[in-house]
Design brief:
Number of domains: 2
Mean pLDDT: 89
Radius of gyration: 22 Å
CATH architecture of the largest domain: 3-Layer(aba) Sandwich
Oligomer: single chain
Helix content: 40-55%
Strand order of the largest sheet: 3-2-1-4-5-6-7
Strand content: 15-25%
Largest sheet: 7 strands, parallel
Structural class: alpha/beta
Order of helices and strands: EHEEHEHHEHEHEEHEHEHEHEHEHHH
CATH superfamily of the largest domain: Glycogen Phosphorylase B
Number of strands: 13
CATH topology of the largest domain: Rossmann fold
CATH class of the largest domain: Alpha Beta
């Protein structure tokens, strides 16, 4: 199979690029895939396709740009030129832009593939029905929220024109089937990027690191985390370092620089900036606990799966999709009220002051993460493509037979 993937890809700063990297890493090792065609956003640096494992040929076509109104035409042209056997879209609603028209035009691409009779799957990482638009930083205006809801419903109907829409949580399947009467929705778990050998669960010497990882400024805010660690320090006397790993959310440029300036008086707060893929293992392995300082959630959490794969205890807000992941996939953590710094401090303290509890949570999360390796997830997509192709072949044969007998 000559498989095309429409996605952002490292060193892109557009969301979901890390997920694409790990999916590509697994697809290229599958015998069923003869060539991977990456239809990616344009970046200044070269795409990261230097894998140590042997695999199929990878062709990179940088053919779209964030917020460009031309993306639908440019990606379609790239598909026409490369002639893939199947296309996988790695999407969320703001994948092609944070401007409404640019985003909507990009989301029409699955329909384009269907009209061209190219087997296609949309991997949809979130659905607007499960996003708190105010907390997530979209809008707090009630009228605008209704408008966003109307737009989101119609964009969802557009996306559902794909042959199959894969979502990462069972709740999403239920909503899409009930609200949209969609017969083509399938649950394919998020998966875990890297499955490391089971760790020792011992912490390195030096200050205990309280780490958070992601793109910050919208619904991921770090001020409360810094203040919570200050409270834990004052109460326990523990030697603690705050590690804020990642960059600004593209919609909130300058956020982390302002936080760094506002909290420069707080000792042992480290801002790593963008984290390269090869730096990720060290980042997690040196952490005592991984914190999710979220005010809302917008989909299954890749960071939670990463934390689990490195055997880390986590502190999570008791809301939305994170709470569901604990229920559905068996993760564990200490929960806190996202509106309370004191609640977050208590959750961090509960783990750092109880070694047995920290290790227990770490083991629970490692076992949950290892249940769905990315190799298994890639295989599920290939099986789904095989089902789509078989169905199309059968339908074409029936149509041809019907035409010939007229």
């Amino acid at each position: 199979m000559k498989l095309a993937i429409v996605t952002a890809y490292p060193p892109s700063k557009v969301t979901l690029n890390e997920y694409a990297y790990h999916l590509v890493k697994q697809f290229r090792q599958k015998e069923a895939v003869t060539e991977l065609i990456l239809l990616t956003d344009k970046t200044e640096g070269a795409k990261d396709i230097q894998f140590t494992e042997q695999g199929c040929k990878i062709t990179v076509k940088e053919c779209w740009s964030f917020n460009s109104y031309k993306n639908i035409f440019l990606v379609t042209k790239a598909i026409n030129n490369t002639k893939p056997d199947a296309v996988l879209f790695n999407l969320q609603f703001m994948k092609f832009g944070d401007k409404k028209i640019a985003a909507a035009l990009g989301l029409m691409l699955p329909l384009v593939c269907k009209l061209k009779k190219i087997p296609n799957i949309v991997l949809l990482h979130n659905i607007l029905e499960e996003v708190d638009l105010g907390s997530a930083g979209f809008t707090s205006n009630k009228l605008m929220q209704k408008i966003y809801g109307f737009i989101g419903t119609n964009l969802t109907r557009l996306i559902l024109q794909a042959d199959t829409v894969a979502v990462t949580m069972q709740k999403y399947v239920n909503i899409l089937e009930i609200k949209y009467l969609a017969p083509n929705v399938k649950l394919i778990p998020h998966g875990t990027f890297e499955i490391a050998a089971e760790p020792s669960y011992r912490l390195p010497k030096g200050p205990m690191q309280i780490m958070t990882f992601g793109k910050f400024g919208s619904y991921k805010k770090v001020e409360g985390m810094i203040e919570a660690v200050e409270l834990v320090r004052a109460k326990t006397g523990l030697d603690l370092e705050v590690v804020i790993a990642g960059t600004d959310n593209p919609n909130v440029p300058g956020y982390l620089a302002k936080v760094q300036e506002d909290y420069k008086h707080v000792p042992q707060v480290r801002f790593t900036g963008y984290v390269e893929e090869h730096e990720v293992p060290t980042l997690f392995n040196e952490s005592a606990v991984v914190v999710f300082p979220y005010t809302s959630t917008t989909g299954s959490s890749g960071v939670l799966h990463q934390a689990g794969s490195y055997g880390k205890a986590v502190v999570m807000p008791d809301l939305g999709d994170l709470a569901l992941l604990v229920q559905d996939e068996g993760y564990g953590g200490e929960f806190f009220d996202p509106t309370s710094v004191e609640s977050l401090a208590s959750a961090i303290e509960a783990i750092l002051t109880n070694e047995a509890y920290r290790v227990k949570l770490s083991k629970i999360n490692y076992n949950a993460a290892t249940a769905h390796p990315m190799s298994q997830i890639a295989e599920m997509y290939l099986e789904t493509f095989s089902d789509i192709i078989t169905k199309k072949t059968t339908e074409n044969a029936v149509h041809l037979k019907s035409t010939m007998t007229r």
